[in-house]
Structure formats: structure tokens, C-alpha cells
Amino acid sequence: MFFFCTFKYYLHVLEVFFISLPKNVESIMKNVLFSMLLLCILLCSCGKSNSQYNKLLTEKENLEKNNAKLVDSLSMLTKELNSYRFSPSKLHANAETLFEEDNLNALDDILAKLQQYHPESKELGEVKVMRERLFTTHLKKQAEEEKQRLLAVSRLQKKQEEKKKQRMSIVSKLRKKHDDVSNITWYYNPYFTHYNNTNRTSIYIGKKDNEIWLRLKMSYNGDNWIFFEEAYLSYDGNTREISFDKYENKESDNGSGGVWEWIDVPVDNGLLSYLKDMVKGKTIKMRLSGKYTKTRNLSPAEVNGIKDILLAYDVLIKGE
């Protein structure tokens, strides 16, 4: 209160003084004098403030000391309470339950509490024995699981190797012919040789270095020409026309009282997909149509030949 009244009085005196000053000087003088006035008043009240500050500082130090004593007391009480809360007999009983439940992590927690609160108890030694037995059991279990895992991997690898051998046997049973001039190896079905002057349908494989491809051959043999310009494959009502160039893919010949016509065309992805479905059909047919038409069912040897070539092609493509 004293500080406020003093400040108000001096402020009134300064206002009377500033009235007679020019505006620019008035502003500067106000700032300077106000600062000096404030400093003087603060210095006048300094003695009283220091006394209050020292008193507060002493009280603060006393509170801190009392607080430290309370914290120590609380810590001791907490420790004592936990010793009753985590009694050796209770912890031991919990440990037995956890041992039966095969819970190693929780048993480790029990052991840590016994070591902290009851390091001299007999229960601590007994729980240590439990923990070691359970830990040993876990190690044996892990070793057995790893053994079974390795056995499973070994069986899988053996199964894959057997499957690979089985798939490779499909290729090995094909008739193979190597052309050392063109460096092409041809793979044919093992059931028959597809001569041009026979009524046959077959596919065969060509392989040169890393390039592998399929070709389809369809032939007619008879007493009279049919002059076919269209070719079809069909199974269970699903028919596909076989496109060919009559100048590049079709040929004909005759001899010994008979005539024969045939086509030999590359197999694209669309036709390959159709052939894979076709060999699963019940009734498989071929048709050559032109001036006259020749339709017939494929024999079991022809169907099996197409199946084997498709399987061998898959093996060669996948490098198995």
C-alpha cells in the first residue's frame, strides 16, 4: 500500500511538470523519468522485500527436508507392505500353479519377487528348482519342434525331387530326334510315328537352345482327294477351327493307289489352352473339310500322345 501511494504522488508531480514541455521532449522525458522513479521506489522497498524473500526461502528448505523424510517413510512402508502382500507361501503357491500351466515367463516374475522381498526364504530355492526344470522342459520341446521341422523339410524336398524325376521321366520316354544341321531337337509321342499318308492327329515339340515350341499335325489318307481348306478339332460339342495357310502349311502327295493331304501348323497360346481342355473330353474328333469332308474320332493312342507331349512341353518350359 505504501508503495502504491508513493508512486501515485510522484506521478502527479511529473504530470504537472510535463505540461510545460514540448511534445517531442515530453515523450523522451516521460520515459526517462518514469524509469528513474520506478527504480527509486524499488530501491526504497528493497530492504523489506529481502527480508520476506529470506523468510520464504527458509520455509521452502524446511518443506523440502520434511518431504524427503516423508518419501523415505513411504518407501519403507511400501516395501513392508509388499513383503506382506507377496508372502513367500503365497508366491510359492502361485509358482506351483504356473509350473503346472507350463508358464515360464510368469514363473520368472514370481522368482524375481522372491529374490527382491524374501532373498533368505526356503521358498526361493524351491521356486528356482521349479524354474530350472521348466526351462529344461522348454529347451527339450524346442529341440523336438526343430527336429520335426527339419524332418518335414526333408520329406518335402524328397517329395519334390521324386515329383521332378517323375515329370522328367515323361520327357525321357518320348521319341527324340536331333537335327545336327539346324541344331533342333524334336520330341514325338511314343505311341506311333505320324506319317503323312495316315489318318492321324498329333502334336510334337521343337527345341533349339533355350527356345521351345509346339506344332500340330493333321493328316488324311484315302482313295480320293478331299481338297480340304478348313480343319477343325472338337470335343463334347466344343469346336475350334485350326487356321492355316494353304500355300505354306498344307501339302499333299499320292502313291500306290492312294492319296494323302496334311497340314503342319504352329501352336499358339490360344490353341495350347484349347488342347489342354480337349484331352480331358470324353469324345474328341477331327474334321478336314473342302470339296469333300472327312470326320473321325481320335484314337486312344492319339489322345494319350497329345497328353504326353503337353506334359513334356510343360516340363521343358519350366526347366524341371
Describe this structure as you would to a colleague.
There is one protein chain. The chain starts with a helix and ends with a helix. Helix 4 packs parallel to helix 6 (122-172). Helices cover 58% and strands 22% of the residues. The chain has a 6-stranded antiparallel β-sheet with strand order 1-2-3-4-8-7, covered by helices on one side. Strands 6-5-9-10 form a 4-stranded antiparallel β-sheet, with helices on one face. It has 320 residues and is an alpha+beta fold. It is elongated.
Note the main attributes of this structure.
about 325 residues, about 20% strand, six-stranded antiparallel sheet, alpha+beta, single chain
Instruction: Report the β-strand fraction as a percent range.
Output: 15-25%
Low-pLDDT stretches are 1-5
Helix share bin: 55-70%
The total strand number stands at 10
Q: Which structural class best describes the helix and strand composition?
A: alpha+beta
- The number of helices is 8
* SSE topology string: HHHHHHEEEEEEEEHEEH
The protein's oligomeric status is single chain
- Computed Rg: 52 Å
Coarse shape: elongated
Q: Largest sheet, order of strands side by side?
A: 1-2-3-4-8-7
Cα(first) to Cα(last) distance is 103 Å
For the report, how would you describe the main beta sheet? 6 strands, antiparallel
Average pLDDT, all residues: 85
